[in-house]
Amino acid sequence: MNVLELSEQEIGRRQSLQELRDMGIDPYPAAEYPTNAFSTDIKAEFKDEEPQREVCIAGRMMSRRVMGKASFAEIQDSKGRIQVYITRDDICPGEDKDMYNKVFKRLLDIGDFIGVKGFVFRTQTGEISVHAQSLTLLSKSLKPLPIVKYKDGVAYDKFEDPELRYRQRYVDLVVNDGVKETFLKRATVLRTLRNSLDEAGYTEVETPILQSIPGGASARPFITHFNALNVEMYMRIATELYLKRLIVGGFEGVYEIGKNFRNEGMDRTHNPEFTCMELYVQYKDYNWMMSFTEQLLEKICIAVNGKPESVVNGNVISFKAPYRRLPILDAIKEKTGYDLNGMDEDQIREVCKKLNMEIDDTMGKGKLIDEIFGEFCEGTFIQPTFIIDYPVEMSPLTKMHRSKPGLTERFELMVNGKELANAYSELNDPIDQEERFIEQMKLADKGDDEAMIIDQDFLRALQYGMPPTSGIGIGIDRLVMLMTGEMSIQEVLFFPQMRPEKKAPKSTVAEWQAIGVPEEWVPVFNKCGYNLTSDIKDVNPQKLQMDVCGINKKYKLGYENPKVDDFAKWIENVNNSDNE
């Protein structure tokens, strides 16, 4: 890396790195460092009356207070932080005091990983600490961490810009309290979910992510090219159709926790790449699945929060079963005053106009109902609510309702104004399924780019016979948001999708050379803040010389400084090129 691309602190750290190597100290040793304790455990287990406990700990050095021959440092390991007391003569018992005087005091930096062997004690101020008897550098940090300072529980100089936090999650995890806790809770959600499904006797499976037909949901897919087969493939939008094939094959219950990909919008509750759990169980229906889901979510909430409640945006949400069950058309009537029962597409279109909704001709009956529900109803359901009995036009993979013509045995679980889960009594009539796929293709012909494509192999599987089955999909990212109280999906994803980083525009080396600037001087101009050739057109030649030649001197580049007349000529060339 060109030295001019580095900050002052980065240059200093690289100089320290070289000094350490010159001293014979490997800044990145390969050998195992045999830690035997964590910060939080040391504090929890310490007893003043017990004999001294020898420990070996390691972590990032997050602070340092040098006081002559004795110093304090704070180490952050994977569980928390602990203070370390370091004296010169303890870590340097012989004549050579370089490990303390040079390495610890001058060559180590905040963010470096160090190992400490010593014993646990309580300081005069009452803080449980580790008295170091040896110190080892385990990894040198070349970039300075943003340091968040805390006083009386208040954080200062926070690393809080969302753009930086999400793009550099590794820094966010190091310096911001509570971020790691969110992801540990996410792990608890997944662990509890998986254990509950395993205990129920269901089998975790894996199905293809690259699919020849994007089925199982209505969504716009990502498209890629499979070179070996020379065919277009799709990133899966759901696992549904493959999991149902396994029910056909004889599994009692199967589930998959994995990534789905939908080439659609991004906002605080949507990420195009998201984690979903789908479960299918034979001989069950959507009524059974509602009860199973209630119990599952209550168990997860207790595992994460210690109680069946979570606080989201000031709302106390209770996951204690049972939950309200409300037909979707009743919900629409309740919120809008319009009863859509028995209405055809044209009549519902008229209702949309009366409600001043923006609709278009590509929307069929199901899409129109979905739009009405989404705009007027969905956001009003804060406590867990099963919205049930969807019209058949909205549910191409769902069994017809056993007692309500035109409706299906489907539910969506709404929590905090958003869909958390979607479930059916699964359609297992292959003839009915084929007819519904055909209706979906008619919507595609009208321009609906989210309509399902006919999956002939799935139809063939159904023709071999699928037992009565209930299935559900639960959005894991939204579930974690609810359990942790986070309002943005980016807060519960380690690495959310981001737009490409914006970089300041720069003139090319050739463009600088075109006005007479030698190639080796281009990075020097950039270091001064002159990224475009046009940036120098109004600069005084003497000032430009002072800026550029000052960098040459400061960084000991060894270049022969151009004369003022050279800078004046370059400025003149820029202005002439602008006038051409």
TrEMBL record:
It is found in: Cytoplasm. Its EC number is 6.1.1.6. Mg(2+) 2 binds at residue 419. Keywords: Aminoacyl-tRNA synthetase, ATP-binding, Cytoplasm, Ligase, Magnesium, Metal-binding, Nucleotide-binding, Protein biosynthesis. One of its GO terms (biological process) is lysyl-tRNA aminoacylation. Gene3D superfamilies: Bira Bifunctional Protein, Domain 2 (3.30.930.10), Nucleic acid-binding proteins (2.40.50.140). Binds 3 Mg(2+) ions per subunit. Pfam families: tRNA-synt_2, tRNA_anti-codon. Its cofactor is Mg(2+). The keyword Ligase applies. InterPro entries: Aa-tRNA-synt_II, aa-tRNA-synth_II, aa-tRNA-synth_II/BPL/LPL, Lys-tRNA-ligase_II, Lys-tRNA-ligase_II_N, Lys-tRNA-synth_II_C, NA-bd_OB-fold, NA-bd_OB_tRNA. It catalyses: tRNA(Lys) + L-lysine + ATP = L-lysyl-tRNA(Lys) + AMP + diphosphate. Homodimer. This is Lysine--tRNA ligase. It comes from Xylanibacter rarus. The gene is lysS.
